[in-house]
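Hello Y.,

Per our agreement to keep a running log of every chain we model this quarter, I'm adding this entry. I've kept the format consistent with earlier entries: sequence first, then predicted structure.
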Amino acid sequence: MSDASLNSDLVRQSAATLATAIARGEVSSEQVTQAHLDRIAEVDGQVNAFLFVDPEASLARAREVDAQISSGIIASPLAGVPIALKDLLATRGVPTTCGSKILEGWIPPYNATIVERLESAGVVSLGKTNMDEFAMGSSTENSGYGPTHNPWDLERIPGGSGGGSAAAIASFEAPLAIGTDTGGSIRQPAAVTGTVGVKPTYGGVSRYGIVALASSLDQAGPCARSVMDTALLHSIIAGHDPRDSTSINAPVPDVIAAAKSGDVRGMRIGVIKQLQGEGFQSGVISQFNAALEILAGLGAEIVEVSCEHFQYALGAYYLILPSEASSNLARFDGMRFGIRVGDDGQHSVEQVMSATREAGFGAEVKRRIMLGTYALSSGYYDAYYGQAQKIRTLITRDFEAAFAQVDVLVSPTAPTTAFKLGAKVNDPLAMYLNDIATIPVNLAGNCAMSLPAGLAPEDGLPVGFQIIAPAMADDRLYKVGSALEAALVDKWGGLLIDEVPSL
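Predicted structure for the entry above:
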């Protein structure tokens, strides 16, 4: 087999398959890493999934892992497998921009807990992926470094804010990725790129070293092309971290065993009445319903569940998130890190801060900071932020009532398939509506997964199927997800992602 043929074969393998081959000595981590670096060099000029790649550092790390494996040390079930990291995970010695010009050139002196755990597990970082600036967006068009393109159709969005991570996986530039999900930023990109993405239980994965957007909503999670690969990555990054005050000090659910199980017989699956119908593309609904029929055929009981306060989730979210963002982003002032504008000795500190923020922040970030500052201001706090938190409580109670009746809840992940780049950039409300099905999960702190349900008949683009479980019941996501995926693989003759057009 030629080098080109070997590389093409390696980049299309699952992370689990690659890890097994590396552990057995059938292929080296260095070879696998080089294959993915070659793929990045080949296609990322069209996709723009990566903001930073350091081939020498990646290959050096791969050689270290190979040496460990040769000496009999296999650090984890994913040892030697490459990964892409969303560019808001602090990574020692590596530029971390959060997709913003205001952090251009910032190199953290420390690692996020997730980065530490991946390194300890022998997972090899390929680089940092593109994203909507400070994770504010649903299309990765708000990046200060240009939009990412969907590998299914390069004229369409890859979702957001983690479009870079999803596109890297969908274009076979990486077998694994880390994303973050504040209102759907892992799940919605997974839906429109035909990949798998999981938002773990809030507090289930450490937020230490992740640049904060909205601290009560943010949650990092795994992205991959299959349910099992996602479970393997989830098991590595999850677990208690005393450096994160919101981290849950409890055993991590056995997501790997659940992914191997794939048995939904006797499970009650609730279809959320409020997350279908008006505003949802017909092809999305048809593929969602087809997936429900498959689950019913596998022995699950399908029932309809009403969550009446979900209709207020979008409004509440877009008060809570901007309020927390306006506080978190106050630290970006041109004084401590990132760019500094106007520091010529003739301007005051306040003027330098103002000029730096004017030059460094993009339009969407400025919009949300202003909205959040207004909502928290004297005389408006109770009317806006306080009321939004009351809605949040009602949504949490809706979930509690629903989970008293069913094991998991399901809905389409996104109301439509990927739309054209530029189609919604001038209509913020239309853009925000892309997250209508994912936001309630973040408000309540539950866990959720998106996996491919097929291609919409009208445009041939991927449709996402969302599974929601109670807090700390992440294993249920993998149990249902693996059962549905296995049935769809039998139906399709392979994973949906195998159908992505070649770049």
